[in-house]
Amino acid sequence: MKTRTEYVRKGNLEALRQEITEYQRFRALTDEWIALSIQLSKLKIKEKNFVTTQAAFLAETESERGIVGSQGFPLRAEEIASQGSIPFFPVVLR
Q: What angle do CA 47, 49, 30 make, to 5 degrees?
């Protein structure tokens, strides 16, 4: 980074130092914001990949268990029971 030197009058010195301090704080906060933004993006990607993987796993296990029909839709309880894998007991609600 290129440096720059300027002469400043004594009356303006304190105000200039304060501006430099505020600029340094601004840079630090900007760097922190960028780092947090990158971290958030990585977490969003990780979450999306997890949800996609989890959905694929559940779809695979459901089809292995016969819970998903040939059209890819979930079977109703009666259809699952008719396959003999899970006993079906109809419940009458009053």
A: 50
